[in-house]
Amino acid sequence: MLTSSAARLLAIVVLFLTWGVATRTARAGEAQDPGYALLASPSRASVPPWALPGRMRFARCDGGPVEVCKAFMSGWEAIRHPDAILPCATFYDDATIAMLRRARINWIWVTWSVGFSHETEAVQRRLLTPFIAKCHAAGIRITAYVSLTNMFIDDMVQHEPRAAKWMQVEADGTPRPYSAAKYDGKPTRIIACVNNPEWLEYSKQRIASAVAAGVDAIQYDNSMQGCKCQFCREKFTEFTRSLYGQPFAVPGARTQDTSHFTQGRESVASAETPGLVAKAWAAFCVKSGADALAQHRAYADSLKPGILVNANAHQQSRMDDGLNSIFSEDGTEPGLRGAELASNIGLYKFFYAEGDGAKPIHIECGRRINGDRMDNPMPPRNQKLVVYESAACQASQGSFFEMGWTTKLARGDQNALDSLAALTAANQWVADHESLFAKVEPVAKTAVVLPAWQSVTPFVGTGRNFVLLHPKHLTPRQLAQFPLVVLLDVRCMTDEQAEAVRGYVAQGGRLIATGDTSSCDGAWRPRAKPALASLQGTDRCAWLPGKPAPEDLLAAWRRFDDKPLVELASAPEHLCFNVARSWDGKRTLVYLLNYGPQPVAGCDVKLRLPKTFRSARLHTPGAATTALAATAQADGVSVKIPAFDIFAVLEIQ
Ligand SMILES: [Zn+2]
After folding, report:
1. Could you tell me which residues come within 8 angstroms of residue 165 by beta carbon, excluding any fewer than 6 positions away?
2. What was the pLDDT predicted at 263?
3. Global pTM?
4. Ligand 1 geometric centre to CA of 195 (Å)
5. For position 14, what pLDDT does the model report?
6. In angstroms, how far is CA 286 from the centroid of its own chain?
7. N or C end of the chain: smaller count of CB under 10 Å?
8. What domains can you pick out in the chain, each with its CATH number?
9. How far is CA 175 from CA 194, 197, 227, 247, 618, in A?
10. Separation of 77 CA from ligand 1 center, angstroms?
């Protein structure tokens, strides 16, 4: 038996070596030395080791008396039950630390400041300061949750009368509220203007107190801006003058209507609003938020160099520019919604690009297939999937311990306990297999450029492997890393970016462009004709006008990238994958994620890696790591994956 195994191994090694030579020869005509990856920012080196992807397992732990008051004053239904009060108010205790340790969670956020005055929130700080020290002793890192704009206005004005002048206002002076309950016939929560220097100065004591308590990171929420106060009007004038050589008046339309005044809402500037003034206004609002966040980070960094700062910015890319970490609450419970695939692979890729391959990412999958995040945790199968999916995408998901799950755990609810057991098992497995997830980067032969977030799940679901890029990455050096680049309606493009794309195609790169790509300049002004018009109708460019059907786009994609690095052959439905390479280039990881309700019977993974490899091993929860054989084929090798349940990692070395 030994002799026969050794002979088979030798045969496989010979096949790999032969194939490697053939592959190198075939690539001689391609663009020189493509790396198939986003060129990571040098700031990757400054990420604290504990925050590296593959090492962090995050949970938001909202609680304490300030959280209870916030919940009541926001009108949240989940708090209006006597069972919910104590678990939330007393969450910061030893039992919670023990639960977090069992669940292998090593990074949490705590409710530090939600928008009451500094005096009123003192009770929360007194409670949290010793809790933070205990968490650190237990190996758990701490983020301080801070609202960027919220003011519980009665309390704020009582303790700080100047707050009456810090409110964001509509053009007619009406204050802008946040989604909240009404007490005494008026909204409880009014948002503050991030261009108001007094408010920004006042906010610093929240940062200073959090840093003094020893936190490792700060998380900003409520980062919306749409104010038309005097400060904002003047700044918008400066902003438009610098862009267009002439000032624009602020658009007159209200951004919140009457019902929003009474109930409030989280107002996110939309890139879909027509008209140049509206575009400029939306960009100005995002820039205002981004500037305020960057100022806060600079202050935090002056107190504690290297402290991580992130914001809940709802995919408004510029918001994260001045920060060194990324958070979003806009992920989705992964799995199947009826027949529809719910996956966050695209969202993780978007943030990886936005963070230049360097910033730590954690995403809360608050949009649920089953129930509501305020009422219940995910069912066990999807609870495991959400952990594995994030690990497969160089990030962490964020478990949600606010209200529902906490209340049900305190009651001893079996479903809540089962979800916690599933989270624990998945976190444990990821923690025990750190080398599969840490210090790796996504690789693909195709780069898809997204100007703003839109779901790319249709491409994930049809088995395309790709890296996402941001328009800021349209440089000759970056484009040269990929044989194929897809510009998904990249409407705004500077002259330099357009030149980089034309040069890329001239050097042999292939291009797919859709919709109104390059029809506007970098300041949203329409061009007489698209800057890339000269590429239309050429051999190496496919231009799909309008909003092409996914199948049309996929047909062009398959034509231009008919030999992807990795593809699934004979894959069952609902099996998705992601591909990464270790930073040292020695290992390739193929992460296989089963979004369906039943285990998969197996599949074949076809590999066309540019380098030869010595071994293929499969790691899957609940089974021992196994070596797999590879079969040489005409243009690559095929590895047969045996049956597995939710997650498997093929490690090529
Ligand atoms: Zn303002």
Report:
1. 196, 198
2. 41
3. 0.92
4. 5
5. 39
6. 18
7. N
8. 57-244+263-436 (3.20.20.80), 444-560 (3.40.50.880), 566-652 (2.60.40.1180)
9. 14, 18, 9, 25, 58
10. 31
The two three-digit tokens of residue 476, written as one number: 């000759």
| Structure tokens given for 302 | 């002056």
Q: Which amino acid is at 194?
A: V
CA-CA distance, 143 to 309, in Å (whole number)? 9
Q: Please list the ranges in the chain whose pLDDT falls under 50.
A: 1-31, 255-272
User: CA-CA distance, 317 to 354, in Å (whole number)?
Assistant: 7
**Rounded CA gap, 558 and 544, in Å?**
14
Q: What is the spatial distance between Cα 359 and Cα 45, in angstroms, rounded to a whole number?
A: 10
Q: Tell me the sheet residues that pair with 443.
A: none
Q: Quick one: tokens of 333?
A: 């419970």
What is the structure's pLDDT at 644? 97
What's the pLDDT at 459? 92
**What tokens were used for 139?**
């190996």
3-state secondary structure of 575: strand
- Write down the mean pLDDT value for the chain: 91
d(CA 304, CA 345): 33
Q: Which SS3 state, helix, strand or coil, does residue 642 take? A: coil
Encoded tokens for 492? 């705004």
DSSP, residue by residue, 431-444 = HHTGGGTSSEEE--
Q: How many Å lie between the centroid of ligand 1 and the Cα of residue 286?
A: 13
Q: How far is the CA of 201 from the centre of ligand 1 (A)?
A: 15
Residue 605 sits at φ, ψ, to 5 deg, of: -105, 125
- Residue 637 CA, ligand 1 centroid: distance in Å: 60
* 248 Cα to the center of ligand 1, angstroms: 16
Residues whose Cβ atom is located within 5 A of ion ligand 1: 193, 195, 227, 229, 231-232
Q: In whole angstroms, what is the distance from residue 448 CA to residue 373 CA? A: 31
* Nearest Cα to Cα of residue 145 among 344, 400, 366: 400
Which three-class secondary structure state does DSSP give residue 476?
A: helix
| Amino acid letter for position 83 | D
Q: Residue 636 forms beta bridges with which residues? A: 633
Residues 505 and 497: beta-carbon distance below 8 Å? no
Give the model confidence (pLDDT) of 216-241 as tens digits.
999 999 998 999 999 999 999 999 99
| pLDDT score of 203 | 97
- Whether residue 216 contacts residue 143, with contact meaning beta carbons closer than 8 Å, is answered with yes
Per-residue burial over 245-271, b = 16 or more CB atoms within 10 Å of its CB, e = otherwise: eeebebbeebbbeeebbebbbebbbeb
Expressed in angstroms and rounded, the spacing between residue 253 Cα and the centre of ligand 1 is 16
